Amino acid sequence: MDKFFVKLPHRGLIHIEGDDRTGFLQNLVSNDMGLLAKQKSLYACLLTPQGKFLHDFFIQQGDGFLLLDCEGGERAQDLYKRLNLYRLRAKVQISVEENNEVYAIFGSRSSGIPDPRHPEMGTRGFEKPEDMEERDFEAWDRRRILLGIPDGSRDMMAEKSTLLECNIDKFNGICFKKGCYVGQELTARMHHRGLAKKHLYTVQGAVPVFGVDIEARDKLIGEMRSSCGDVGLALLKDDLLPLLQGQSIQVLRIS
Fold first, then answer.
1. pTM of the predicted model as reported, rounded to 2 decimal places
2. What is the pLDDT of residues 114-145, one digit of tens each?
3. Would you tell me which of 37, 66, 73, 112 could form a disulfide with 123, CB atoms 3.0–4.6 Å apart?
4. Tally of structural domains, the chain
5. What is the mean pLDDT of residues 71-75?
6. Mind listing the pLDDT tens digit for each residue in 191-220?
7. Residue 217 vs residues 127, 199, 240, 246: alpha-carbon distances, Å
8. 184: how many CB neighbours lie within 10 A of its CB?
9. Listing from the earlier edge strand, what are the strands of the sheet with 123-125?
C-alpha cells in the first residue's frame, strides 16, 4: 500500500478546557461524546435550533482538554463565537486558532488518528509526517468525493442544509440514541420518518462549478457543490435521478 500524506488547507483549532467541557459539548453536538471512551476521535456537527447545519468538526480528547479540528479562518472564528454564546455558566474556557496545520495520512496506521468517517480516509495528525511522500490536495479531495463524504461548507450550506440530506448519518456524525442537543428534534424526525427527499450524490462527467443548477429534460434536478476534476458532489432530488441517464453528468452509486 502506498504511503503518502496530504496537507489539508484552511483548518482551524478550537481548544476547550474546564470541568464541564465534555457535558458542555454533549448538550450541543450531533454525536455522543461518550464515544471518546473507546475511540480516539469522533466526527460531529453543530446545528441551529431548527436543525440546520452550521459547522462540522473532529473532536479529540486531550489531557484535561478537548480539541476541535474545524474549518479555518472566518469559519473557525464563527464556531468559536457560537460556542461562547452557549457557554453561560458552564465551567469551560474556549480559545481558537484560525489557522492550524492538519495532515491526512494514508498507508500508515502508526501515524495520526483514524478518520472516524470512513476507513479509506486514512488518519489525521497535526504534525507533518517524516520519510513519506507528500501529494497534492487533489489526491485527498478526489478520494473524499468518490466516497460521497461532504467537506464542511464546501458541500453543506450554513443555516440551510440538513444532516440527513448530506449523509452525515452514513459517515458516523450522528448519534440517534443520545439525549437532546441543539437541532436534535428535526434531525430525529427526518430520520425516523424518512423525510429527506434529496441527498448529496457523487457525480462524474462535465461537472459545473459550485452553486450551478443541474438540469435535465427541462427539470431542475439539483445543485452542484464541491468538485475535483471530473468528479464532484451534487445535491440532487432522489425521485428525479433517472432523468440524468444519458446526460453529460452521471451519478456514481457508491456502496
1. 0.95
2. 999 999 999 999 999 998 999 999 999 999 99
3. 112
4. 2
5. 98
6. 999 999 999 999 999 999 999 999 999 999
7. 50, 20, 10, 11
8. 19
9. 113-114, 123-125, 102-106, 4-8, 133-134
* C-alpha 145 chain-centroid distance: 12
* pLDDT at res. 1: 62
Torsion sign over Cα 227, 232, 238, 241: positive
131 & 27 share domain? yes
At 242, which CATH number?
2.40.30
Q: How far apart are CA 170 and CA 206, in angstroms?
A: 27
pLDDT 10s digits, 27-58: 999 999 999 999 999 999 999 999 999 999 99
Q: What is the pLDDT of residue 179?
A: 87
Look at the chain and count its residues. 255
C-alpha cell of 165?
440530506
Q: Domain of residue 252: give its range.
A: 197-255
